[in-house]
Amino acid sequence: MSSESTGEFHRIRRLPPYVFAEVNSAKAKARTAGEDIIDLGMGNPDSPTPRHIVDKLIETVQDPRSHRYSVSAGIPGLRRALATYYQRRFDVGLDPDTEVVATLGSKEGLANLASAITSPGDTILVPNPSYPIHQFGFIIAGAAVRSIPATPDDDMLRALDRAVRHSVPKPTALIVNFPSNPTAYLADLDFYREIVAFARRHEIWVMSDLAYAEIYFNDKPPPSILQVPGAKDIAVEFTSLSKTYSMPGWRMGFAAGNDRLIRALTRMKSYLDYGAFTPIQVAAATALTGPQECVAEMRALYKDRRDVLIKGLVAAGWDIPSPDGSMFAWAPIPPRYASLGSVEFSKLLLARAKVAVAPGLGFGEHGDTHVRIALVENNHRLRQAVRNIRGFLHAGSNVAEDADSQVSAPQGAL
Fold first, then answer.
1. What are phi and psi of 320, to 5 degrees?
2. Torsion of the alpha carbons at 284, 290, 294 and 296, rounded to the nearest 10
3. pTM of the full structure
4. 3-state secondary structure of 297
5. Higher local confidence (pLDDT), 21 or 125
6. What are phi and psi of 305, to 5 degrees?
7. What is the reported pLDDT for 313?
8. How far apart are CA 333 and CA 344, in angstroms?
9. Helices 105-117 & 132-140, crossing angle to 10 degrees?
């Protein structure tokens, strides 16, 4: 066999080394040594799933009929519940039979739709930095990715225009994600109108990731791209229950919008899965249609944590913009440490302050000037993190002890 045939498989070769592995490995090593690490790296909600949702799961799982194979596209009641949510939240009407499909979390839906609609060599437009599956779902499917600015402003719009004029072949799809992971940027409806007009004019599909729709900290809830007239001609939107209802491990998400894209994703999924466990789908429908006070409480919790973290770090000398949405702070590396890059700075912060964050490089090369800080610890732990970081910044060291010779850790969620 040739040296190439004994190496990585083709699709695996297109995936770069896992950027977060070094920090994950150092974190695991520190914990094995008995160190108290405050983990603000992974976007993993720490609050329990609301009781009424858990109760519905327990009630449903007691029926042996619910233990059989489920429905890949989502049981009808769940798809109706998602349509009800869109009507209530965005005043958008959806046909639950043709414009909604349930997914095993939004990540699975994004990746499978990328595979369904992509031909090798297609050009896809993806913000940089952005959540890794936004680009790698298409890269795995054989596409070429062209980076565009992540900000919802004229810079992105100008980049889209350049991409259409200068890309060969012409772009076939565009990803947008607001409130965004990792940058926490928010977009307004006027921006979405520009995106929809552009995409319709150039016959480009739009995939909108709206996983953080309910985590916002001002009086204006983030809109859906589907609110724009004509958006369903070219757009599909992904949502998730993971953050809204603290259900990350339940793996429950949705795609909604253009019926052709929904049909393609539904067909792809029919070959790959039988859907989430039926009791999970029933409980998910209860989450969407039941009492919503838990969503407001979750939002208030993250806002309080945001204020504790940002005010504390600004007072400590780390100037970080206060996010208006999402469960993340997108923190520029302090000037003194900027030359290190995000991976080495993250390792240094872990070694000296015992705080784990996500290096921005993991979200694209244009993220290497930042780290992402997740609001996934209680206020007591966040204040401890602030104290530790203050001590680190005031000590001024820019060399991490034992920062090398780390063993790679498995890939985790982001």
1. -120, 130
2. 110
3. 0.90
4. helix
5. 125
6. -65, -40
7. 97
8. 11
9. 40
Which pLDDT band, with edges at 50, 70 and 90, does 25 fall under?
A: confident
Q: Element (H or E) spanning 46, and its range?
A: none
Distance from the Cα of residue 236 to its chain's centroid: 16
Residues 26-38, mean pLDDT to the nearest whole number: 89
- Contact call for residues 128 and 150 (beta carbons, < 8 A): yes
- DSSP lists the bridge partners of residue 176 as 208
Phi, psi of 355 (to 5 degrees): -125, 125
Please answer whether residues 50 and 245 qualify as being in contact, where contact means their C-beta atoms are separated by less than 8 angstroms: yes
Task: Answer for the pair 68, 274: CB distance below 8 angstroms, yes or no.
Answer: no
Every domain of the chain with CATH number 3.40.640.10 lies at 51-289
Superfamily of structural domain 10-48+294-395: Aspartate Aminotransferase, domain 1 (3.90.1150.10)
Residue 23 has pLDDT above 90, yes or no: no
Please state, in angstroms and rounded to a whole number, the distance separating the CA atoms of residues 217 and 240. Answer: 19
The amino acid at 41: G
- For CATH 3.90.1150.10, the residue range(s) in the chain are 10-48+294-395
Pairing of strands 235-240, 205-209: parallel
Task: Give yes or no for residue 402 having a pLDDT over 90.
Answer: no
CB 409 within 8 A of CB 32: no
DSSP run (H or E) holding 127: strand 123-127
Say if residues 223 and 240 touch (Cβ distance below 8 Å): no
> Measured on CA atoms in the order 391, 395, 396, 402, is the torsion positive or negative?
negative
**Each residue of 191-219: pLDDT tens digit?**
999 999 999 999 999 999 999 999 999 99
CATH of 51-289, one of 3.40.640.10, 3.40.50.450, 3.40.1000.10, 3.90.226.10: 3.40.640.10
- CA 143 – CA 369 distance, rounded (Å): 27
What is the mean pLDDT of the segment spanning 220-236? 97
Which residues, 6 or more positions from 143, have their beta carbon under 8 angstroms from its beta carbon?
Answer: 114, 118, 119, 120, 121, 122, 123, 124
Q: Band of the pLDDT at 4, cuts 50, 70, 90? A: low
pLDDT (0 to 100) of residue 8: 73
CA neighbours closer than 13 Å in the CB half-sphere of residue 316? 24
pLDDT bin (cut points 50, 70, 90) of residue 302 is very high
Q: Which two tokens stand for residue 135?
A: 């680009």
Range list of H helices, 272-335? 278-289, 293-316
